């Protein structure tokens, strides 16, 4: 299972990043409809940054990594975790918890930077997860858990799921880090997790990100349904959630199938190419050694050599001539005739002395009546040689040994011209020839210290760090320096030496990238359609609701009292109520205040964006107004973009606080299609001897003064003698 998932890391990184991009999109959508959008923007930014980080990890997997690229990804990861912490901090402040200020981020980031400076990028990545990722995820989990306690129904369940998802993600991303040789990361790391479970931690993180994204989507859906107050829209959202899950799952499965197919096609090509290359190299090496094998056989059977070995005739000149002829014919560097004691009877012209190490194996095998074929490495010249020997017989008796030694420098030159990594290794995996000079005398797989010391007698000092984690077999897949390679290993007929080809499979990931790109496009198209359809259904529901309200107003006579667009009281109803409330204030000696406000530069909104957008802005402001008034207050649309609020029992100070709170809420709100809007407010308190028109004129004058003073502000009309209900406001604690 581990090898299967290792071949799927590209799609896992894509899936992981997509889950967080989806989280970011959902959170930004939530931020658009909330007045307190800051926390959700921070969480959305976390999702987008972390999703981009995983896709950059995918890019590193395909095109290769670089220290600067790795450092950039660590910086991006750190920034994303800071956004997660900021989300939790802002939400905790809204709950009322005591939390540190933003200055703590500098200390945490400094810790990450120091870890990177003194211990490298891997240590910085681990520090970022320990210092920021883990506490940020756990803090987010606690925030969602607190919200779940005050919610009910499916929203409560979704909040609990989000809390559990963040808590588990904190463990998966904040405690399970890339492997280090020290600290917790030496014991709890990505590699150890994959070994224990067979599953890469990135897949677990991606699944948790999906869980978090969809649970927050449920919360957002119920909030949207509550804003619309339509059972039809709520039912549609529930069905849409199921459709979305099914559609995204189907697209991912089909995309993975396509990606796997494209990868399999290229993988088959890689395997076929590697087979052809290893066969070609094997035949080239066989050609080098076969000629030597044939010539040493002819040399051992030469009568001149037998005569020289037995001393039956003075044949030294003739034997040396035959020896030189066989050396030249086979392309060998030197040839020797050895007596049974290992002494040299004859040597080819220019042959260097034959050392005891070179002669030991041929002599031992020949005395046993066997031919000997072996490879040998010269640590002085870094040259690999081929030795072939046969016993020289006089009847059934071995009287001498014929030896030919050939340098494989021609074969080595051929290897060095190749692009792929090639190795010629002894049975222990020590590299004797390669086209990667830095790996010469390096072990391909781990060996014991005792065996290493023995091999250094023949090869000289060996490079300590093995290239692979374990000995490889032919036609297998392995990990080389963090990258996945295809291995072909072809043994030679002699001495257990073998040819090894490493076929980097980065091109396989590049071919699979086409399937990933198609999957991404299909997912985006599906989500755009689903969200667009949701918007259309919402508009349809709102339009239907507006039409039904209009019809109801017509049927029940509500049109005389209600503004059909905003649902607030209309001007006619307000004028009737004015007289009633003024009479009540005089009779009971209670305060009465008036708030007048309108939208700043509203004409430009209609001119630039159109009247439908302007109408939606009026409806949104009316909805915000309802949130800040009591059941006894009287909010009304006076006309166009102008609104009035009549506040029985509220003096001018209480009315001013309500006006200021409403002004701030409108300024912070996001208006669909427009962005931000502001309003200017005028506040006046009723005096006993005032008429309705004079009362309204004072509030209008204060509104005009707010406009002159820069807009987006609330101004209070000067107090006049005869103000009713002094000190008896019942609205002083509203905001």
From TrEMBL:
CDD domains: GGDEF (cd01949). It catalyses: 2 GTP = 3',3'-c-di-GMP + 2 diphosphate. The chain crosses the membrane at residues 12-31, 43-64, 70-92, 104-121, 127-145, 157-180, 200-220, 241-259, 509-531. Coiled coil: none annotated. Its EC number is 2.7.7.65. Keywords: Membrane, Transmembrane, Transmembrane helix. SMART domains: GGDEF. GO terms for cellular component: plasma membrane. It is an enzyme of class 2 (transferase). GO terms for molecular function: diguanylate cyclase activity. GO terms for biological process: cell adhesion involved in single-species biofilm formation; negative regulation of bacterial-type flagellum-dependent cell motility. Pfam families: GGDEF (PF00990). Residues 590-719 form the GGDEF domain. The keyword Membrane applies. The keyword Transmembrane applies. NCBIfam families: GGDEF. This is diguanylate cyclase. It comes from Hansschlegelia beijingensis.
């Amino acid at each position: 299972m581990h090898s299967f998932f290792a071949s799927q890391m590209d799609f896992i990184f894509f899936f992981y990043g997509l889950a967080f991009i989806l989280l970011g999109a959902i959170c930004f959508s939530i931020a658009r409809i909330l007045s307190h959008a800051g926390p959700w923007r921070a969480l959305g930014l976390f999702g987008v940054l972390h999703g981009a980080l995983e896709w950059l990890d995918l890019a590193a997997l395909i095109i290769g990594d670089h220290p600067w690229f790795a450092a950039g990804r660590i910086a991006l990861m750190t920034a994303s975790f800071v956004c997660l912490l900021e989300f939790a901090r802002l939400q905790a402040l809204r709950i009322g918890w005591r939390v540190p200020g933003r200055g703590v981020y500098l200390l945490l980031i400094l810790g990450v930077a120091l870890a990177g400076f003194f211990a490298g990028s891997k240590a910085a990545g681990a520090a970022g997860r320990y210092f920021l990722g883990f506490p940020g995820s756990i803090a987010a989990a606690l925030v969602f858990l607190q919200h779940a306690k005050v919610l009910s129904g499916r929203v409560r369940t979704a909040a609990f799921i989000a809390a559990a998802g963040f808590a588990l993600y904190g463990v998966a991303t904040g405690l399970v880090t890339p492997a280090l040789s020290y600290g917790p990361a030496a014991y709890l790391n990505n590699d150890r997790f994959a070994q224990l479970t067979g599953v890469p931690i990135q897949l677990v993180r991606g699944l948790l990100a999906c869980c978090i994204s969809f649970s927050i989507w449920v919360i957002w859906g119920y909030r949207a349904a509550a804003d619309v107050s339509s059972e039809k829209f709520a039912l549609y959202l529930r069905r849409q959630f199921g459709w979305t899950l099914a559609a995204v799952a189907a697209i991912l499965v089909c995309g993975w199938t396509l990606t796997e197919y494209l990868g399999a096609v290229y993988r088959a090509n890689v395997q076929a190419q590697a087979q052809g290359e290893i066969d070609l190299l094997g035949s080239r090496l066989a050609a080098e050694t076969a000629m030597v094998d044939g010539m040493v056989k002819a040399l051992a059977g030469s009568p001149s050599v037998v005569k020289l070995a037995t001393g039956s005739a003075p044949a030294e000149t003739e034997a040396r001539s035959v020896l030189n002829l066989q050396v030249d014919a086979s392309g060998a560097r030197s040839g020797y005739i050895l007596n049974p004691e290992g002494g040299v009877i004859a040597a080819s012209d220019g042959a260097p002395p034959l050392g005891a190490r070179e002669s030991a194996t041929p002599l031992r095998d020949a005395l046993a009546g066997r031919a000997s074929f072996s490879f040998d490495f010269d640590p002085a010249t870094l040259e690999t040689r081929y030795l072939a020997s046969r016993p020289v017989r006089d009847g059934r008796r071995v009287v001498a040994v014929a030896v030919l030694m050939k340098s494989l420098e021609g074969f080595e030159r051929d290897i060095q011209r190749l692009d792929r990594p090639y190795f010629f290794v002894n049975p222990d995996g020590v590299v004797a020839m390669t086209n990667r000079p830095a790996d010469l005398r390096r072990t391909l797989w781990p060996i014991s210290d005792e065996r290493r010391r023995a091999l250094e007698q023949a090869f000289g000092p060996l490079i300590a760090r093995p290239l692979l984690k374990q000995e490889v077999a032919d036609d297998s897949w392995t990990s080389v320096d963090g990258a996945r390679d295809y291995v072909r290993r072809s043994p030679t007929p002699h001495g257990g030496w073998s040819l090894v080809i490493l076929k980097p499979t980065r091109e396989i990931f590049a071919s699979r990238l086409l399937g990933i790109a198609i999957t991404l496009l299909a997912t985006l198209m599906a989500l755009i359609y689903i969200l667009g359809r949701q918007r259309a259904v919402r508009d349809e529901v709102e339009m239907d609701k507006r039409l039904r309200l209009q019809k109801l107003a017509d049927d029940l006579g509500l049109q005389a009292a209600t503004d059909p667009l905003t649902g607030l009281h209309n001007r006619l109803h307000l004028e009737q109520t004015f007289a009633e409330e003024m009479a009540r204030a005089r009779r009971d000696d209670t305060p009465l205040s008036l708030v007048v406000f309108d939208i700043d530069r509203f004409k430009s909104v209609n001119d630039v964006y159109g009247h439908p957008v302007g109408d939606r802005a009026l409806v949104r402001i009316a909805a915000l107004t309802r949130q800040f008034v009591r059941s006894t207050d009287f909010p009304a649309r006076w006309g166009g973009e102008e609104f009035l609020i009549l506040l029985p029992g509220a003096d001018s100070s209480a009315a001013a606080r309500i006006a200021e709170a409403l002004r701030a809420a409108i300024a912070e709100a996001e208006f669909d299609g427009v962005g931000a809007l502001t309003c200017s407010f005028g506040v006046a308190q009723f005096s006993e001897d005032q008429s309705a028109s004079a009362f309204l004129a004072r509030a209008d004058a204060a509104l005009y003064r707010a406009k002159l003073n820069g807009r987006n502000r609330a101004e209070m009309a000067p107090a006049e003698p005869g103000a009713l209900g002094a000190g008896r406001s019942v609205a002083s604690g509203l905001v």
